[in-house]
Amino acid sequence: MPAASLAAEAGASASLPADIYFSADIETDGPIPGPYSLLSFALVVAGRQVGGSFSRPTGAEVSFYRELRPISEEFEPEALRINLLDREHLLRVGTDPVVAMTEAAEWVRQQCGPSRPILVAFPLSFDWTWLYWYFVRFSRTGSPFGHSSCFDIKTAFAVKAKRSISEASKSKLPAHLRSDSPHTHNALDDAREQAEVFAKIMEW
Q1: Are strands 116-121 and 150-152 parallel, antiparallel or unpaired?
Q2: At the fourth CATH level, which superfamily is domain 5-152?
Q3: Terminal C-alpha separation, the chain
């Protein structure tokens, strides 16, 4: 899919502003940014919305993925056991965070053109905290999502299903809203899986 194809489609409804959604997933070596490091992240274009009309992307998947060099010496072994990333390898060959976050910010802006980028995750809080901190700290152009352009898929499911937040975990999604893709703890795989769940909830 051409880089600005979603933005071009949005231009057909120029009378209304368009939101372009990006499914985000991250893998880290600890609970908070700064003392610990973002090791990998992925962004997958998950759809656009003009007014009350949501549409999935058409054509080939548009995605961004990087593995980063750690920024500190601290890490939690349990986190590495879950994501299976080789921290010692990333210390040698991981992308410099300044390069990775600047490239990611520019990529998001290229996908959107004049439209507004919205970061989505299920749940949002963990991924947003890390990505916002890394964009502000390392990207030469700041965060393409500003300080608040984000959307929590878990909350959307709770509202649509008329459930409490405690009853709206991903494990409690009904079968028709789940993705056919496995959850692998690879950031790109999981961002793809999440993009599918997001689209199904938006279309539900």
Answers
A1: parallel
A2: Ribonuclease H-like superfamily/Ribonuclease H (3.30.420.10)
A3: 26
In degrees to the nearest 10, what's the CA dihedral of 79, 80, 82, 85? 140
Provide the whole-model pTM: 0.90
Question: What CA–CA distance (Å, rounded) separates 198 from 204?
Answer: 10
Element (DSSP H or E) covering residue 93: helix 87-93
pLDDT, tens digit, for every residue of 88-112?
A: 999 999 999 999 999 999 999 999 9
CA 150 centroid distance within chain = 10
Distance of CA 61 to the CA centre of its chain: 14
pLDDT digits (tens, 9 = 90+) for 1-19: 455 555 555 444 457 889 9
SS3 32: coil
